[in-house]
Amino acid sequence: MTLQRLLYALLIAICAWTGYYLLEKHWADDVQIAPDAEKPIFTGKSVINTAYNESGQRSYQIDAAHLEHFSQSGNTDFVEPVLWVYKNGSETEWRISSNEARLDKNHILQMTGNVRIFNLLPESAVRVIQTDTLRLNLVSKDFDTPDHVIITGDAFQNEGTGMKGNMDRNIATLLNNVKGRYEAL
């Protein structure tokens, strides 16, 4: 009989220990992680936003597959943005696309990943500008990038490292390591 009682006592001890182990895990306080202080105040999908200048003319339009706006920082993050810049409020002059972009409260748009700038005017010598990042002031239309740039036109292709310019004045200056190839028409 003592062997049977010993087995019962051992079985009760195992059950008690297992129950204690499971209840301890159940009653343990969950680890609290501090929430992100800045969550987007609003988000959107397939968004089109048009901005106007002081005289009421269209200045630019941003289309995006997805956006998130943060009220505390004033930043708006875009996924697959396309920026349309208007000439005199009516004619679309520039189309700029990238993988991602961030617009800050000072109207500086930082575009990253596969940035492509297309001039849509038929009389323009420049057709496409390619780079990895672009910083654009949406008020003054000044832009710059420190990255490798390729500028392609009807009869030329220039490339270099770094660029600055202005979209209203149609100026783009390559800064370093400039190379060019020109073809006769």
UniProtKB/TrEMBL annotation:
Single GO cellular component term: outer membrane-bounded periplasmic space
GO biological process: Gram-negative-bacterium-type cell outer membrane assembly
Gene3D superfamilies found in the cross-reference section: Lipopolysaccharide (LPS) transport protein A like domain (2.60.450.10)
InterPro entries on file: LipoPS_assembly_LptC-rel (IPR010664), LPS_export_LptC (IPR052363), LptC (IPR026265)
Chief site of localization: membrane
Gene Ontology molecular function: glycolipid transfer activity; lipopolysaccharide transmembrane transporter activity
Keywords of the record: Cell inner membrane, Cell membrane, Membrane, Transmembrane, Transmembrane helix
TM region(s), chain numbering: none
UniProt cross-references to HAMAP family, sorted A to Z: LPS_assembly_LptC (MF_01915)
Family under the similarity heading: Belongs to the LptC family.
Quaternary assembly: Component of the lipopolysaccharide transport and assembly complex. Interacts with LptA and the LptBFG transporter complex.
Protein's recorded name: Lipopolysaccharide export system protein LptC
